# Entry
Amino acid sequence: VQLVESGGGLVQPGGSLRLSCAASGFTFSSYAVSWFRQAPGKERELVALISSAGSRNYKESVKGRFTISRDNAKNTVYLQMNSLKAEDTAMYYCHANYGSGIITYWGQGTQVTVSS
# Structure
């Protein structure tokens, strides 16, 4: 079982990044998938979630700027991040969840740094 994040990097304020989370080893389409982030000295927080049925939820501060999507044929979830701000700087983690926590998997994280 693997969740592999990619797409992080250094971007200027106002810029964009697209994160990818590639899954393998489990029935991806049956899982809700979330993006969490953790900044230094802060707790990990939920950024966006997409259910197995495709419904979406977002942290209030990213609504209108971030979009989560999934491609079940590619076993991949994306997080499109636009109008990035310095406060979006964090390690971003992909999380897959089945049955409200009965089975969960975490990726290793990808770093996003927003700085001029």
Remarks:
- The CA atoms of residues 57 and 63 lie 9 Å apart.
- The first strand starts at residue 2 and ends at 6.
- The chain has a mean pLDDT of 96.
- The chain is about 0% helix and 55% strand.
